Amino acid sequence: MSTLTAFPTAPPAVASPYAAVFIDFENVYYFLKNHYLDPQDPHDYALDLVRALRDALKREYGLESLVLNAYADFDKIPTGPQGPLYLMGVSTRNVLGTDHKNAADMQLCIDALEVLYTRPAIGTFILVAGDRDYIPVLQHLRRQARQVKVVGFRESISGDLLQMLGQEHFIDARELLPAERLQSLEDHRTARLRQGEEIRRLREQGMVGVQSAAARQAAQDAADLAAAPAEDGASPVSTSPRPSVSGRPTMLEQLLQEPATFAPIRRITRSDERRCLEFLLEQMQRFGSQQAAPEIWASPFLRRLTDVLPELPDWERRQLLSHLRDAGAVRLEKREGEPHPFSVILVNYHHPDVRELNPGPAEEK
Known about the structure:
single chain; alpha/beta; 3 domains; 13% strand
């Protein structure tokens, strides 16, 4: 006589303090990259979000995250976030994407169901994702008496998913990001939108490629402004324009270049950030004069920073550089190179902390 075998699952009899977190890291990364118009190092903001979520679940919900999984085609994400995720206790699942379907979605759902049937002590499932494709697995988890929450950005979350789940089970990803990091993203997006609007206006006026007297005068005025001292501690615009046929960039050519201003200035109060800045200025004095412009490559600098701050993991050392950028002390720029593009660091010598630590830029030595 045959017997039916049921899945070995049963809802916890009491509220469980244990959670499983499944992160569509690819979804988060590309939302930050696209919505905020290609900010520098979007993976750093994604890591901030994961770290803040883990801490918030413990602090505000009393949940211990026994399972932390992140899914992406990590080979396509620059600078490799797998190491920093591992140090945060997050297991990474490298899934190859396809042109038709995000394989991370499928693997995430499979793993969520596996945890459901093999880890009955886990009572809460957290999905950092927003696609409506997750609705069936979320409904199944709820039918098994599991608590379900979804973390995401409102611009990317599915309305159908929110309606099914309820607003009370939605965690806004923006509220998890540190305020200064979120402001940095918003400032970058605003600057890019303003730049794009100015370019569109000039194109509508037929100024593309036109070397009129007005355009030449505007370019001269912009160059004079860039060379003038900044007011109220603001940073001057970088003066390394690409020459046009006439030898001077047009207004449109200047607008098309990467935004060259530093972030709004704030004082540096953390000791590790100040140590990082001090070492950066030493390295700028040593290596910056060897370049055509006072700048140093980011990757070799971070490797040398290991000897100065050996107590910090790699991702925290990279974050120090990001924090200096957000404080307006440095700027990171991408350069085209072979076989891959690379990033360089430029220092804002008008920043008050830079002035305290260093009397002047490398080229003045």
